[in-house]
Amino acid sequence: MSLLRVFFAVVCVLSSAVIAQGSGIYTKAEVLEAINQVEASGLKENVPPGDGGRALGPLQIHWAYWKDSWDHDQNCPHGVNHGAFPGEYIGVELWDYACKVFDAYMCRYAGYNVWTDTMDIDDVEIVAKIHNGGPNGPARDSTEPYWQLVKAQLPNKD
Q1: What mean pLDDT comes out for the span 79-90?
Q2: pLDDT tens-digit profile of 92-101?
Q3: Domain spans of the chain, in order of start
Q4: Are 84 and 73 in contact (CB under 8 A)?
Q5: What is the number of other CB atoms lying within 10 angstroms of the CB of residue 25?
Q6: What's the chain's average pLDDT?
């Protein structure tokens, strides 16, 4: 085999590895589904309250989380209406409304540079840790086990 063919073969192999490594792009829907699997075993309705009755719905949202989302949605600096306002806390028991609340919360605490239509695995980790541990979730060691559960529910992108 000529040296030129070897060179091209190596370039092709390396290019394939880089493409495969960078192909782990996730949509908002995939992230929400993974979190729903962890929080409510994939149930979208009739989800029992969690966390001693303090978390509701398919994304197990607490009242303070909802309130943060609601406040943000009324005053979103980006001029976006996420759909969390108007609404009532009990609405988080519904999948569509819970997703809107989640969207507003992530807009507020993860920002549009992380919570985007397509995210890499690092951004998904930040989102999952914020959902589990609040605005400072990514800095808390206690959110790592939760992140591992969410990560295991993400579609395989290999």
Answers
A1: 70
A2: 999 999 998 9
A3: 25-153
A4: yes
A5: 14
A6: 84
Q: What is the pTM of this model?
A: 0.81
The arrangement of secondary structure in 25-153, i.e. its CATH architecture, is Orthogonal Bundle (1.10)
Give which of 37, 153, 154 is closest to 95, Cα–Cα: 37
Q: Measured between alpha carbons, how far is 83 from 100 in angstroms, rounded to an integer?
A: 6
Q: What is the pLDDT of residue 80?
A: 61
Q: In this predicted model, which residue has the larger pLDDT, 100 or 37? A: 37
